[in-house]
Design a protein that fits this description.
Number of strands: 4
Helix content: 25-40%
Radius of gyration: 13 Å
Largest sheet: 4 strands, antiparallel
Order of helices and strands: EHEEHE
Structural class: alpha+beta
Strand content: over 45%
Strand order of the largest sheet: 2-3-1-4
């Protein structure tokens, strides 16, 4: 089992409950492919380094989880097509 950190940048144009649903979907994907989530760190609304899809701000979330090596690829494949996720990145953390 490896430790991973999944950074998810969610659109600031959606309502709070919609944003919560997006994060719940991402968490469900991680668990569906065998990951065990240790914590979810919500950074809140931050200014983007550069404009993305005519947005200057977005909400940042960091999901820490443990899983086997196939899980991050499967999760990223599905996050890629989610409408309100504007950026994502999954990295392996060293022990």
């Amino acid at each position: 089992m490896n430790k991973y950190e999944l950074a998810v940048v969610v659109s600031a144009k959606i309502e709070d409950d919609e944003r919560a649903q997006v994060i719940e979907k991402v968490k469900a994907l991680v668990e569906r492919f065998g990951g065990q989530i240790s914590d979810v760190d919500e950074w809140g609304k931050k200014r983007l380094a550069y404009e993305i899809q005519k947005m200057k701000e977005a909400y940042y979330y960091f999901i820490h989880f443990e899983s086997d090596a196939e899980t991050p690829g499967e999760v990223e494949k599905r996050i890629r097509i989610m409408d309100n996720v504007i950026r994502y990145l999954c990295v392996r953390q060293d022990a």
